[in-house]
Amino acid sequence: MPEVTQVIALPTCAICRDDEDTEVNYVVTKCGHLFHGECMTEWSRNERNRGGNPRCPFCNTTLHSYNDYNDYGDRTSSMIRLHQLTKHRVTILEDGKPTPEQEIKAARDNLNTIKVILNTKTDKLRLTEAEKTKLEAENKSLKSTIDKLNKEIELQKQKVDTRAADLRKEKQSRQKDLATHLEEKQHFQKQIADAKYHYDRIRAERAELQKEMGRRQGENGKLRGIMTNQTNTISRLQAQSIQVNQEKADLVQKLTTAQRTNQTLVSQLQALVPNHQRYLNSIQAIQSNQHFYQAPSLEPAQSSQLADVLQGLSGGFMRLEKEYKGIKKLLEEKNKKDGNRGRLEDPVEQDRPIQVHVEDIQERSLSTSRATSLAPEPRLDLMKSEQSEIRELIQKVEALKLPHTPAVDQKITPAVDQVFTPAVDQMIAPAVDQMIDPRLFG
């Protein structure tokens, strides 16, 4: 009979997961799991280093303490070496029956294997019972906890119901408060809208006031500048007023002196009037006696001399008029400075009668000179008109209130002296005497 070989297929190590190991060095735990011996030794050493008992890497069952492989195979050991079993199982049997020793040994090995399996099952049963006791204790504890939780839930439910009732009441109260608050909110919104409207209006008014204030500030600045200028102007005008008052006082004094001078001039003019009146009376007497008296004719030289005298009188009146206008202009400028413009009449309107009289005198003097050169008889009506014009001029001078100044004296006095001089009287008197009949005066 050929040899029959029995081979045991070993499982894979649950630690290193290696199933190609050629060395048959396996251990089995009491919970029935197979591992490499070296892997289990390293695993147990690591568990001890962490301060705990070794546990099965597969099912986490607590194993008894052991020292490597020295205790493997004992009844108290948690693991056995699997290769001791396989040595007896992997045997080449010869043809024929086994020997009794071999059978005894095989039976013993089977018994040991059964013991190992039994121990394993016993340990599993013990662990199961321990776990059952533990689970029962945990179940009892959980049941007590559940009862407590149920009571707590019931209590919390009552509290929740009470709280819900309170919350419903509070909700109703809050709804009432909310309605009140909504009304107040609407009222406040209306007030806010009104306040916003008033705020916008006040803001617009403020902007207008700011613009107005800016404009007023600008105007104030201008007014301050104007006030400063006016202050300076007032100071200047006060100084000018003092100066003008001083000049006014001087002019009043000069006016008084001028009035005296005018009175003197009027007296001089009035002194000339009787001579002319006497001449006119003589001429009138001559005219009334022309039917029996014929005045001697004037010589050409005397007629020319009389015409020259009349032209001199006309030139004197022209100079008086010119000086009179200059004085009027000077007084008008002074009155403008003093602000007293209505004090004197219009110089042009006031001078027009004098100018008319002077022009008439010039024209008549020229006509007299022409008539004298052509006719030997005198023009008595011309002399009468000149006499009336002289009187009118005297009245004008008396009515005129001229200020007395050195410039006025220098302008008036020479002009009057040139018109009314003794030379003029000496030139006129012989000519008039020649026209008077000596028989009229005996």
TrEMBL record:
<feature type="domain" description="RING-type">
    <location>
        <begin position="13"/>
        <end position="60"/>
    </location>
</feature>
<keyword id="KW-0862">Zinc</keyword>
<dbReference type="Pfam" id="PF13639">
    <property type="entry name" value="zf-RING_2"/>
</dbReference>
<protein>
    <recommendedName>
        <fullName>RING-type domain-containing protein</fullName>
    </recommendedName>
</protein>
<dbReference type="GO" id="GO:0008270">
    <property type="term" value="F:zinc ion binding"/>
</dbReference>
<dbReference type="InterPro" id="IPR001841">
    <property type="entry name" value="Znf_RING"/>
</dbReference>
<keyword id="KW-0479">Metal-binding</keyword>
<keyword id="KW-0175">Coiled coil</keyword>
<dbReference type="InterPro" id="IPR013083">
    <property type="entry name" value="Znf_RING/FYVE/PHD"/>
</dbReference>
<keyword id="KW-0863">Zinc-finger</keyword>
<feature type="coiled-coil region">
    <location>
        <begin position="118"/>
        <end position="254"/>
    </location>
</feature>
